[in-house]
Amino acid sequence: MAIASRKLNRHLALHLNPTTPATHHRFSPYPAATSSSSSSLTTHHQEVKSLTELEKLHPLGQGSGGAVFKVRHKPTRAIYALKKISSAAETQEEEEVSIHRIASSSPHVVKFQGSFQTPNGDVSILMDYMESGSLSDHAKASYHDARLPEHAIADVARQILQGFTHLHANNIVHRDVKPANFLVNANEVKIADFGVSKRLPTRLARCDSYVGTAAYLSPERFDMAAHGSTYDGFAADVWSLGLVFLELYLGRYPLLEPGQKPDWPALMCAICFGEMPPKIPEEASEEFREFIGCCLEKDPCKRWTVQQLLGHRFIVPRPQEEEVKEIAR
Question: Which segments carry the region annotation Disordered (predicted)?
Fold first, then answer.
């Protein structure tokens, strides 16, 4: 556990103090588009041939193993995001490029637009710019207490699960599922950041690396020594997705009390020994509770797959429920 602690502490990233603006009253989980950057990519798309064609505008954030910048393609004025990965960092540049290229054939993954390598070995990945930022930022900016209503979570979950169905079908495990690694445009949510992802040789292959963000690790990942030193990466992704969906509902990280310090002992107790699923407010629907329970099953063999979750009644509502929503609009 001590070794795992040292390797994972740098990845601790929780969103425990959301702001509370209330700006949207629609059923759509997304705000109205505020810029034309997405359309400019479609209208003026042209292959970017070198890094010299790109003008750096400003930083967007820090991804796994590298910094991400908003950039402009000088010849076309099209806007992109560029992740710069230093060869000096403990990264897997070639694998990340390969995985992102394969993954982005899904419409639910941020589109890979190319990669570049500098003489000193640094690698840059060019991808579509997602104008509304991360899912966590969007929730804070768009909903009271950063809490999404169930119908919005169902729509977000449907898109994410469709993306993960594509990843898992290609034997790709993400291994760093958290709200910050889902990016939003005006009408879609997409999977991002494959910095610690892995493509397994077979569907039955196991993972054995301590990577990812500690707060979103499944019990078998958090304390691998107690679970045979390997884990099912596909089932582990599902656990992390369950935490993300529950966090969207609660407006805070779901396994700790508000204000509780997310240190290693607190996370270990919550993840490995806490009751699952955690307490969910009484007003939550039976379908949502059941859905979260299917994700946050401590036994990975009993956890639902992403394909099974796509068929869950929370994601696929009954026809009469759709009629009620239409009337409510």
Answer: 19-48
Residues designated as active site: 176
Residue range 146-168, pLDDT digits in tens: 899 999 999 999 999 999 999 99
Q: Which amino acid is at 237?
A: D
* Neighbour-count burial for 87-116, b at 16+ CB within 10 Å, e otherwise: eeeebbbeebbbbbebbbebebbbbbbbbb
Please name the residues in contact with 54: beta carbons below 8 A apart, sequence gap of 6 or more.
48, 71, 72, 73, 74, 80, 82, 126
Give the type of residue at 299: D
Where do the domains of the chain lie?
37-128, 132-328
What CATH superfamily classification does 132-328 receive? Answer: Transferase(Phosphotransferase) domain 1 (1.10.510.10)
- Which tens digits make up the pLDDT trace of 243-267? 999 999 999 999 999 889 999 999 9
Q: Mark the binding-site residues for ATP, compressed into ranges.
A: 83
Residue ranges for the known binding site are: 83
Closest CA to 123 of 45, 63, 55, 213: 63
Which residues face 54 on adjacent strands?
73
Q: How many CB atoms lie within 10 A of CB 203?
A: 10
- This prediction has a pTM of 0.83
